[in-house]
Design a protein that fits this description.
It is built from 9 helices and no strands. By secondary structure, it is mainly α. It has one domain (26-268): Ribonucleotide Reductase, subunit A (Orthogonal Bundle). The two termini are 26 Å apart. Helices cover 69% and strands 0% of the residues. It has helices spanning 26-51, 60-89, 95-117, 120-142, 152-167, 171-179, 183-215, 222-246, 259-268. Mean pLDDT is 93; it is low at 275-283. It is globular.
Length: 283
């Protein structure tokens, strides 16, 4: 089990970030740009889901880990949200997607599921998404060689987020064990997580690409398309394997041996601000 440290960072840079910042490919870039829009409100969802069940946590050590988890997630959302300004300066309309995403995913679906299955469902979805993000984190470190070739404005920020996802990967899971350890609850949470993450990522991606091609007149080459197909195929294959691990009845996140990647990152990269600031834990 990793110790969880709250780090105060600031990845906002004034240098210009190119529109095709991820491997020089507009398709892969806009696929991840979609995640940049999803993450901040997704982090708030994680925080709400865990906070709703803090009263069930009796272990003092888990209580401390929960507080650190919440603080880390607040900072994650804040750092990704800073990039929204860059996207707007690049001429992208992000408000249309954000309005659709928040109304459908949180104002409607979250409320309906809480009424239908109770708030424990949101915690189960968070557990599933935490596994997916920790798995994605391992993927970018190992399969993508620390995002080699990514524009430096974003590379370190994405790796920092990935490292902290690995660091706190078991917190929500351990809270769910106190609330409802049933296999059924965990599986329903994973189904919900896969469906919503896939759907909203693709909607965001298509809205970005519509603007890229129709509004900006960007020409997408066949080689870019083929490269994107290969990247997505590799990603889906890798994530499918990680989902299969999650399906085991006795699964626990600490069984996944990737803790060393977070340790490695924070030894190699110095990301903390020298002057610490107080972070308000807001849901």
């Amino acid at each position: 089990m990793n110790s969880i440290k709250v780090r105060h960072v600031d990845f906002a840079k004034e240098e210009e970030t190119p529109r095709n910042w991820l491997w020089g490919n507009y398709l892969t870039t806009n696929f991840v740009n979609s995640l940049h829009l999803i993450f901040p409100d997704g982090e708030k969802y994680f925080i709400r889901s865990v906070k709703n069940h803090e009263e069930f946590v009796k272990d003092p050590e888990l209580k401390k880990r929960v507080k650190s988890f919440i603080a880390q997630e607040v900072i994650h959302g804040s750092e990704h949200k800073k990039f929204w300004n860059t996207l707007q300066k690049q001429g992208y309309d992000i408000d249309t997607f954000l309005k659709f995403y928040n109304e459908s995913c949180y104002e409607n679906l979250e409320v309906w599921m809480n009424n239908f299955r109770g708030t424990k469902h949101g915690l189960a979805v968070t557990v599933a998404l935490e596994h997916l993000t920790a798995s994605l984190a391992e993927y970018v470190f190992v399969n993508k060689k620390e995002l080699e070739g990514t524009h430096e404005n974003l590379r370190t920020m994405l790796l920092w987020h990935a490292a902290e996802e690995i660091e706190h990967k078991s917190v929500a899971f351990d809270v769910l064990k106190e609330v409802d350890p049933s296999y059924k609850t965990r599986m329903i949470g994973m189904i919900h997580a896969i469906c919503t993450l896939s759907f909203f990522t693709l909607v965001g991606f298509f809205l970005f690409m519509k603007q890229e091609i129709l509004d900006k007149g960007t020409k997408i080459s066949l080689s870019e398309i083929w490269e994107f197909i290969l990247q997505v195929t590799e990603l889906v294959s890798s994530m499918a394997k990680e989902i299969a691990i999650f399906l085991k009845p006795d699964f626990h996140p600490d069984q996944v041996p990737n803790d060393h990647l977070a340790v490695y990152f924070f030894q190699k990269y110095k990301v903390e601000k020298e002057k610490l600031e107080v972070i308000q834990n807001v849901a």
